[in-house]
Amino acid sequence: MKNVILYCRVSTDDQAKTGTSLDSQEEQLRRYCESHSLNIVAVFREDFSAKTFIRPEWKKIELLVKTDKSIDGLLVSYLDRLSRNHLETLQMIEKFKRKNIEINSLDHWTHQDRPEDKITLYLLSGLAELNNSRHSERVTIGLRQAKKEGRYVGQAPLGYKNSHTPQGRAYIEPDSNADVVKYIFSEFARGIYHPDQLRRKLRLEQKLNRSRNAFSALLTNIVYVGKVRIPATKNTPEIIIQGIHLPIIDDDTFQKVQFILSGRKRGSYSTKKEEIFPLKGHLLCPTCMRNLTASLSKGNGGHYSYYHCQSPCKCRFRTRNAEEDFLGFLKSIVPKDEVLKAYKMILQNVSSRRQKDASLSTPDTKRKLTEVEADLTSLDNKLIKNIISSDRYKIMHDQLKKSQNHLKYQLSEMQISKTSSSDMIDKGFHLLARLDYFYEKGTSEQKKKIIGSIFPEKLVYENCAYRTNKNNELMALMRGNLIGVGNTGFEPVTFRV
Fold first, then answer.
1. Mean pLDDT for the chain overall
2. Alpha carbons 145 and 129: distance in angstroms, whole number
3. What is the pLDDT of residues 248-262, one digit of tens each?
4. 67 phi, psi to nearest 5 deg
5. Per the count of CB atoms within 10 A, which of 11, 34, 224, 263 is most buried?
6. How many CB atoms lie within 10 A of CB 387?
7. Cβ-contact 399, 388 below 8 angstroms
8. Distance in Å from the first CA to the final CA of the chain
């Protein structure tokens, strides 16, 4: 009596309806073994894709045939239960054959030593792969069509749950974790956390475990603003359309998060190192003009901090000295009282004029923005219905997006102009008059904001003095020079502490 292994596999629940369920397969195989006097050594059942042989139960089979030399065969009800990959099927059959184990199926039994039966085996395994490819293509088309209808398909992201419309169509709706997602975006939009800092904070506070990549993907997932992304194909570009699900995050907060993630916001994040090195990222090496970095060095009596260049350059400065000199430098550039008074009067007049202009221009700008957004929606619909070519779509979409962003920026500027600015002006000039004090008492984040607002370019620190390599108009204004500083840049080389 020959010893055999029975292998049953499904990949979808609906296979139970077509007679290929696990129970149905096992029953067929057992009947066959009973009628042909075959001894069943083991039965393996699994719910797994047949694209590859990387499957839990199949791995157990391979381990079993390594140790049990008495096995003569492996039976499946249909050849596609074994695999839907033509090449891998033939390779696996040959691999087992070298162990004197015959793999066969009940639907098309083959004598693998006969040349004519080998052709049948090649055809059957090829047809299994063809059917799988066609099925995958149909699934891809169906998923793409669902997305075109504004439905998110697949596993719902954090904050949503999978649901169905009354017509039975899949979509997503907010669940109890929606507030967690809102908290994540609102905290990150403050601009004080690195993504990994916030991820660790949430893990401790709310027991939210996410990998770094998963957390970064969450922060950029456009689903949270109620939209669906339709991926690009060979013939069509990627498009984003309005989904039928409810948004969790408002568009302004989402865009602010993307702005911070893009790295365009100087001093967006603060870390423990930045608390020690507020000038890090703002200094150039006076010798080779590369960016200075910063680190702690252990020596006699404890740890010492330095701003330093990279090898082979040996330029370095004690952090304490650089900080003291920078504080003295700030004291030297604080504008005189009469200069502050004149600038404040000018700014108040400009602010008053802008408020009047904003009140007149806002309705017209809102109307233009509504028209552009309607054109974008119409353009997406034309592409989906194949009324417009993908190349033409891309050109027009880029132009409309550019107009939309410009109009949104104008509206935000008008909104700022319409708000009462007298308090902001008073606070700003109060800070400017005591710039060195606020820098000395400020947090790391506040220090970096002060540095970045005055010096968008990098500073050079040399011989206890600070200078820039380019013109700095703000520095000229702070010194009361309305004409400018010429072409040599601001060079307070004579300043010493």
1. 81
2. 24
3. 999 888 988 888 887
4. -95, -30
5. 224
6. 11
7. no
8. 99
What backbone phi and psi angles, to 5 degrees, belong to 57?
A: -70, -35
**Is-contact 229 153, C-beta < 8 A?**
no
Beta bridge partners of 424: none
pTM assigned to the model = 0.43
Q: Quick one: 327 exposed, middle or buried, by C-beta within 10 A (0-12, 13-18, 19+)?
A: middle
Contact in structure between 112 and 121 (CB atoms under 8 Å): yes
Please say if the pLDDT value at position 491 is more than 50. no
